[in-house]
Structure formats: structure tokens, C-alpha cells
Here is the input.
Amino acid sequence: MMDDALERAFRERVAKRFGMKKGSMSLAIEEAIREWMRSEEEAKGVKEAKVEIPLEHVEEAPPPSPEFAEEIIRASGENINKCIQCGNCVASCPSGRITAYNSRRIIRKASMGYKEEVLRSIELWLCTTCYTCVERCPRKIDVVNAILTMRNMAVENGWMLDPHKVVSMNLMKTGHAVPIDQATRERRKELGLSELPPTVHQYERALLDVQHILKETGFFELVEKAQPQKAGSA
Ligand code: SF4
Ligand code: SF4
Here is the structure.
């Protein structure tokens, strides 16, 4: 620890050097430290370096799409432009507490037209559809409905998370998003149940019907063409 006389002398020198008055001593000290760091860098020959990034490596952000908000409003019936950015939805969001998900920000970016940024973001898929935000939004916006609409739009544009693609493939192949596994078969037998549940697992004809519906409704094609979604943030 500095003794009183030394501290006084140090303060006087700093004040004299930087012309600070008594109350601004901490600012003067900060400035003294900054100057010392600058002189150290100069002594080592470290110059401020400008990093030039070649233009071909700069990914151009897609321009905002002014119709995006209208598309969402039309498809969902939710007027996201009524949002006043109060943040009530985020404050009560269980997903937002542990992830980067921020419903207020997604709504804002959507109303500003950042279509690609929103639809390609992984956060779009982090809503658990618990509906807490819907209870609390002072503007009566059904945030879940808006989010689900944007998810549909993402898939229609060919952006889908890998795990969702796997689940969708399961559905197309087996008629179940989570098909039965060997352990569950065994457990069913132990419990005196039929090894397979009375679903498409038991009725092959019903599986063909499910596959037919998935094909006719365009689900099959949609999942097939979807690309893995890039990590990004809305
Ligand atoms: S519904 Fe989604 S956005 Fe709303 S509070 Fe629940 S997790 Fe958050
Ligand atoms: S609670 Fe409603 S008004 Fe507030 S930020 Fe969320 S969506 Fe917007």
C-alpha cells in the first residue's frame, strides 16, 4: 500500500502533468496509465494496425424486405407492427432465460423487414410454445402464432434445422416422429401389451395412407428440399 506522503506526491505529479483538478484524480490516473501504455507500445514498435479484409470475404447482408411484416400479418393474423418493444414477452420467457432467444428482437427485426436474417436464425426454433408471453403482451399480440408462422416461412424457403429434418424423415418412413425402439418393445411385452402399439406400426396399410397424405400435401417435397440452417442470430 502507498504511504500518505507518496500518494500525495503521486497525485500532485499527475495533477500537474495532466492539469486535472482534485475531484477528477481518477480520470487523470486513467489518462496517465493510457499514456504509459501508448509509450510502451511505441517503444516496442507496435503501431496501430489496420486489418484490411479483402472484399471477396465480406458477406453482404441481404437488404430488408419491406413486404416481410405484411406477409407475416397476412399469414398469421397477428399485427406485429403493433409491438411497442416493451420486452414483457422476453422478461417472462423461460427459453430466453437460458438461451439467446429473444422474442422482442425477432418481432422487431421482422417488422423492419429483415426476412432472411430472421428466417435463417436458429433462435426462431427455441420458443417452447408455452404461451406465457401471449398472456402478458400488453398489445395482445399472439407471439407464438407469429413465431410459428415465421417457422413455416423458413421451411417454405428451404431452411430447416437438422434435428427437425431427422424427425420429419422418421415420420415419412415410419409414420411416427419417434418410432418404437427395441427397449420399448421389450417393456411393452413385460407389461403384457402387444409388442407393437395399435398404430401405423401394426397396420402397414395405414402407414401407406400416412405416406400418401404427406406426399399429396407437399410435406415430403418441403422436407426433401430443406437445407440445414446456418448458425445465426436474429
Ligand atoms: S411461448 Fe415461446 S416466446 Fe412465449 S414465453 Fe413461451 S417460450 Fe417464450
Ligand atoms: S410483450 Fe408484446 S408489445 Fe411487448 S415486446 Fe413483446 S410482443 Fe412487443
Summary: Residues 162-228 form one domain. The chain has three domains: 4-43, 68-157, 162-228.
